[in-house]
Amino acid sequence: MLGKGMKGIGPVSLKNFGGIFGIAGSVLTSPYIWLGIASLMGFMIVHMLLLTWADYSYVQPATSLSYATVALLSYFLLGEVVTPLRWMGIAVICFGVFIVGRTAPSTTGVFE
Q1: Counting CB atoms within 10 angstroms of each CB, which of 46, 87, 101, 112 has the fewest?
Q2: Are 34 and 86 in contact (CB under 8 A)?
């Protein structure tokens, strides 16, 4: 959403200082920018909640599934081109997440 919002604003040129205010006004009034910010805030809240349940070494790789989510949403909603090489990279990441997901989510207290 942030990318779509910024593409809607157009190219940014910072050759003169006065242009910054016009760009800032466009950014602050873009609904796509605000939707992107809300999505990032939602992600951070869910991420913090997950950290109360599981170790960071489990949660962080699992959040890498966002690469697949972003690629799928970019392709279907924004019409962006995702090359086969990127799809292969995403598949490798998802396979790694699958391997990590087969371990226990919390290792705290295992060696005590």
Answers
A1: 112
A2: no
Contacts of 63 (CB under 8 A, 6+ apart): 47, 50
User: Residue 7: what residue type?
Assistant: K
Q: How far apart are CA 42 and CA 47, in angstroms?
A: 8
> Among positive and negative, which fits the CA dihedral 108, 103, 90, 73?
negative
Sorted by where each begins, the domain ranges of the chain are 1-52, 54-112
Residues 6+ apart with CB under 8 A from 28: none
Token pair in block for residue 37: 């910010």
**pLDDT tens string 30-79:** 999 999 999 899 989 988 888 888 888 778 777 888 888 889 988 998 88
Q: How far is residue 59's CA from residue 7's CA, in Å, rounded to a whole number?
A: 32
Phi, psi (degrees; rounded to nearest 5) at 102: -85, -5
DSSP letters spanning 14-79: -SSTTHHHHHHHHHHT-HHHHHHHHHHHHHHHHHHHHHHHS-HHHHHHHHTTHHHHHHHHHHHHS-
